[in-house]
Amino acid sequence: MILINIDSLSTTELQYIAQQERLEDWQTLDREELIDALEEAFGEQDDEVYSAQKGKIHRNRFCNSLTDYRGDKQNLSDLPGVEPLPETYLDTSIHLLLRDPQWAYAYWSISPDSRQMVFGEDGQAPSSLFLRVQETRIESGEVLSFDISVDREDTQWNINLPNMGSSYLVDLCWRDRKGNEMSLAQSKRVETYPAYWQKHSGELADNYASFLSNFASLVTKEGEIVDNPVIRDLAQQLCKGVL
């Protein structure tokens, strides 16, 4: 198969790809005809690339998602089932997704009513938005928080999580010129957990095989430890002979 999992793609996805590949009359082709046309088109393109690069082919494939293969913005409004996303939503909400133990991704929307309340009818009220990140230590129950200033046009933010072994939630807040604060929306809580070696560092120091398995893939070609707080802390302890 020229296209990976081509049979699992919907007709709309096949039409999208055909449009990007600039196939003629793609609107009139049925599903099987689209598959045949795309396989033929990619086969011809691979032959051309092979002749030019002598086997050194580096091209992306459409697998199981709609991907803008050529990097160009396409007008998809004429595809069946395609509707534009609204510019604003009727509710104010914020969501927090855990990317990895050190980073979370927050995204939010502000309803027209909330935006008018915060920034006034003319949009010029001197109010400011910020994210209040609340951290709760899982073992001790200690609660900490810190604020991140955001612009009124922002709708997303990557948040560094300072400690593993804590749960986090984030409030979308605003502050008026008098210093009064209000939470517009609050996310659900996400949890992180401490790495095994943080509490078993002695095993790492005594077991050379475990040391190699953990550090071999976390060191750059230049011999520098990657930006991982757990590994960095363990490396410092090992270098100082604390363990």
The averaged pLDDT comes out at 76
Tell me about the largest β-sheet: 5 strands, antiparallel
Rounded Rg: 26 Å
The dominant shape is flat
Describe this structure in words.
Helices cover 29% and strands 23% of the residues. With 243 residues, it is α+β, with helices and mostly antiparallel strands. It has 3 domains: 1-84, no CATH class; 93-191, Immunoglobulins (Immunoglobulin-like, Sandwich); 196-240, no CATH class. Strands 3, 4, 6, 7 and 8 form a 5-stranded antiparallel beta sheet that branches. A hairpin with a 2-residue loop joins strand 1 and strand 2. Helix 1 (11-20) runs parallel beside helix 2 (31-53). The longest helix has 23 residues, at 31-53.
List the helices and strands and how they pair.
Blueprint: H1 11-20, H2 31-53, E1 93-100, E2 103-109, H3 112-119, E3 128-137, E4 143-150, E5 156-160, E6 166-175, E7 181-186, E8 190-191, H4 196-199, H5 201-206, H6 208-215, H7 229-240
Antiparallel strand pairs: 1-2, 2-5, 3-4, 3-6, 6-7, 6-8
Helix pairs in contact: 1-2
